[in-house]
Amino acid sequence: MEHRVDVAVVGAGIAGLTAAALLARAGLKVELLEAHSQSGGCAGTFRRGPYTFDVGATQVAGLEAEGIHSRLFAHLGVPAPEATPLDPGCVVDLGDGSAPIHLWRDPERWRLERQRQFPGSERFWQLCAAIHRANWHFAAKDPVLPARNWWDWGQLLGSLGPGNLASGLLTGATIANLQDLCGCGQDQRLRRFLDLQLKLYSQEPADRTAALYGATVLAMAQAPLGLFHLQGSMQSLCDALESALASGSGGGDGGVLRLRHQVGQLEAANAGQGWRVRGKVLAGKGLANGKATKTNLESFELEAADVVIAIPPQALPPLLGDALKVNYKQCLEGLGEPSGALVLYGAVDRSALPPDCASHLQLAWEEPGSLFVSISQEGDGRAPAGQATVIASVFTPAKQWFGLEPQAYAAKKAAAQLGINRGLSALLQLEPGDWRHQELATPRGFAGWTGRPWGYVGGLGQHPSRFGPFGLPSRTPLPGLWLCGDAIYPGEGTAGVSISALTACRQLLQARGISLALER
Fold first, then answer.
1. Longest dimension (CA), the chain
2. CATH of the domain at 56
3. CA 217 to centroid of chain Cα atoms
4. H-helix or E-strand containing 213?
5. Residues 59 and 99 in one domain
6. Are residues 214 and 238 in the same domain?
7. Contact criterion met (CB below 8 Å) for 33 and 516
8. What global pTM score does this model have?
9. Is 517 a domain residue?
10. What is the pLDDT along the chain (520 residues), one digit of tens a residue?
11. Same domain, 160 and 305
């Protein structure tokens, strides 16, 4: 296969699907290349008998009125997937015998909850709320960060308001710094809660999470924002974006999703005006341990004026080879190591769960680490009536799971599963006989499913040195090459990667003399 398109998008996770759909809607000929047999990446799903499991992401932000997903679906002309707001957004058990903390959707109810749980901390929460309001005003104008040319700077400066100029003084601060500033830095129970919540979205604890990022993370569960549970599965979000990509409706040829197409090389073409994309068409399920499932597979090649990379930037050096500029290669090599994850996928009778069990819970746990637990809702399509899926995830260093002998790997995996089960017993009183199904995924499994280097999950840690103006730009130093995804501002989560895709598309289209703006 050899042909030419306007844009090739590499990776059909939420960021790649969003970018491809937006560009097709703008009238460009787009091909979205995905190595797996389905879209979604870390926001995909898989089935085991009667059970549907979300691979990684289990909740969605940005479906509220004027949220990024709502704006995108309105622009693309497709209905948003059915979803219900989570209330509470999460229940956090600090594992110290104290009452769990409920992140209520109602702001007043949450205010009373935190005052009861963390007396003397209200100045901290009020400061975070003020920063969040400034952030929200800023984000509402779709800024470009980091800025790399005059157009980017125009979008950035035009988004700033008085609140941003004040909060900008905290650009180098962490959430822990805010805690100290407000006189509650010695509250170790509050710090433990902050560490647990921030790690989910920031990949970093409170003393390493940028204050300007963490303040909004801590407000995500409350109205008028909120966290949402999708009917069916996370795949419904992907299905809606696939529908938008196929419909195009921008006056051009629209977009095509090509599954089992693994990109292996990007090469600058036509004297730097465009790219040649080469790869393999995979057999079977597309990937096995990140590699083609058969040898001597069919090759494909296409030329594209622009390429949007929606896979982790750590994958760029082997794709670009000699086309990668030395300074940019050093930048990519210095990004640091994201986390991997251990994820237990299980199913139980709903009667085995505590009464009124929340859909999302956290438990401070020592071995193998703190748990984030997601439980399906009755009638949501993930389990038969009277049963529930239970997904428990733990962050883990990724590389230590590779290079092990089979026996050592099996023993390490068994020990991790035992530790997670002990945590679930403490949190939900689930015992071995309650489980109808169980399996554990490690970073090796994630590398095979997603093709992400070392099975990394999430993006770069949102440390002040890597957030906002100091982050990795969507505009690369290579003409016609753009980045989006969880390593690009504003970070991970389906809402975050969608914003990054919107930014990359606006930059790409502006270079073609086309304006892209979503209505509010």
1. 66
2. 3.50.50.60
3. 13
4. helix 211-217
5. no
6. no
7. no
8. 0.95
9. no
10. 568 999 999 999 999 999 999 999 999 999 999 999 999 998 999 999 999 999 988 999 999 999 999 999 999 999 999 999 999 999 999 999 999 999 999 999 999 999 999 999 999 999 999 999 999 899 999 999 999 999 999 999 999 998 888 888 899 999 999 999 999 999 999 999 999 999 999 999 999 999 999 999 999 999 999 999 999 999 999 999 999 999 875 555 679 999 999 999 999 887 667 999 999 999 764 443 334 334 446 899 999 999 999 999 999 999 999 888 889 989 988 888 889 999 999 999 999 999 999 999 999 999 999 999 999 999 999 999 999 999 999 999 999 999 999 999 999 999 999 999 999 999 999 999 999 999 999 999 999 888 899 999 988 899 999 999 999 999 999 999 999 999 999 999 999 999 999 999 999 999 999 999 998 7
11. no
The DSSP secondary-structure symbol of 353 reads S
Q: Which amino acid is at 342?
A: L
Q: Residue 217 to residues 127, 169, 226, 379, 457: CA-CA distances in angstroms?
A: 14, 19, 11, 29, 18
Helices and strands, counts by H and E, the chain:
15, 19
Give the domain range for residue 76. 2-82+233-336+460-511
Cβ neighbour number for residue 137 with a 10 Å cutoff? 15
Select from 415, 439, 454 the last residue of a domain. 454
What are the start-end ranges of the H helices in 26-103? 68-76
Among the candidates 186, 203, 225, a domain finishes at 225
Q: DSSP secondary structure string, 342-394?
A: EEEEEEEEGGGSPTT--SEEEE--SSS--EEEEEPPTTSSSS-TTEEEEEEEE
Q: Are residues 467 and 321 in the same domain?
A: yes
Is 148 found in the same domain as 120? yes
Considering the domain boundaries, does residue 520 fall inside one? no
| Separation of alpha carbons 182 and 298, rounded Å | 61
Q: Is residue 519 part of a domain?
A: no
User: What residues have CB less than 8 Å from 321, skipping those under 6 apart?
Assistant: 265, 267
**Pair (173, 269) in one structural domain:** no
Q: Same domain, yes or no, for 275 and 255?
A: yes
- Residues 98 and 207 grouped into a single domain: yes
- Note whether 35 and 262 are within 8 A (CB): yes
The CA-atom distances, in angstroms, between 378 and each of 350, 385, 430 are 8, 7, 18
Residue 441 within a domain: yes
Region for 5 from its dihedrals, namely left if φ exceeds 0, alpha if ψ lies in -120 to 50, beta otherwise: beta
* Domains in the chain, number: 3
Distance CA(360)–CA(496), nearest Å, equals 20
Amino acid at 125: W
